[in-house]
Specification:
CATH superfamily of the largest domain: Crispr-associated protein, domain 2
Number of domains: 2
Radius of gyration: 19 Å
Helix content: 25-40%
Largest sheet: 4 strands, antiparallel
Distance between the termini: 31 Å
Strand content: 25-35%
Number of helices: 7
CATH topology of the largest domain: Alpha-Beta Plaits
CATH class of the largest domain: Alpha Beta
Strand order of the largest sheet: 2-3-1-4
CATH architecture of the largest domain: 2-Layer Sandwich
Length: 252
């Protein structure tokens, strides 16, 4: 019998005013960068990820292997300002954070609805390129064959989740069959990614332009063990910055 690592769903309600002050203090316009820093300041190496900040009212969701006792210990040791900004406090239904066990064993063939925020990129030479613009260029440029953004992003997701022929098998690949996917939100903007600290020097921020896309749809679980890995890992790149968290619901 396969034994899966535990998984918990964390919900917090960050303080909007403290969050704005934190972003100004660290000179960042990128909410994902700010939340990444806050989670690292509060939890260190145990920072929950992937995570998803929904909005000021619905708060932040994250997957974590920390159970209630381990979470309480981490919160007790957290940086006070980071903890208050994130809305960490007593674990109850009315104040502070909430933590509940999340399934790690799923029935093979189970159909689920999903939503995921991603940055759909492909490798082009030494650089990463938006999957849609890569397809446009491959089709001969804007005057070439018609290319639909939604179809390209859905195909990107399908290929990202599939087993890749000739490449080392990752434990999360082949977890699901993508039944359908729709582009429910799209924007282009810049995110901030920071360099590693060198000789005590502060980390420097670097602005990266790219796509912010939210896909919704249905998937079928084909490998329960791989699906457990997929949920804990997340989808695509920038998973520590608010991208890649698979939110699940009953399929309609």
């Amino acid at each position: 019998m396969t034994i899966f690592a535990p998984l918990y769903l964390l919900h917090t309600q960050p303080d909007a005013h403290l969050l704005s002050a934190w972003m100004a203090r660290y000179r960042t316009h990128d909410l994902g960068d700010a939340l990444h820093g806050l989670l690292r300041a509060a939890f260190g190496a145990h920072a929950p990820q992937p995570f998803r900040y929904l909005d000021e009212h619905r708060g932040l969701l994250a997957y974590t292997p920390l159970d209630a006792q381990a979470m309480a210990e981490q919160v007790a040791l957290a940086d006070d300002l980071a903890a208050r900004t994130l809305g960490l406090g007593a674990c109850s239904a009315h104040a502070g954070y909430r933590l509940r066990p999340f399934p790690t064993q799923w029935a093979q063939g189970q159909v689920l609805g999903f939503e995921v925020r991603v940055r759909p990129t492909v490798r082009s030479g030494q650089k990463e390129q938006d999957a849609f613009w890569h397809a446009v260029i491959q089709a001969g440029g804007p005057q070439g064959a018609a290319v639909q953004r939604e179809a390209i992003y859905a195909q990107w997701l399908r290929e990202h989740l599939a087993v890749r022929e000739g490449a080392p098998l990752q434990p999360w690949q082949g977890a699901v069959e993508l039944l359908d996917a729709q582009l429910s939100a799209f924007a282009r903007g810049t995110v901030v990614r920071r360099t590693q600290p060198i000789a005590g020097q502060p980390r420097k921020g670097r602005a990266i332009e790219g796509t912010d896309a939210t896909l919704t749809g249905r998937l079928r679980v084909t490998d329960p063990a791989a699906f457990a890995h997929l949920l804990a890992r997340g989808v695509g790149r920038h998973r520590a910055y608010g991208f890649g968290m698979l939110l699940l619901h009953r399929a309609s």
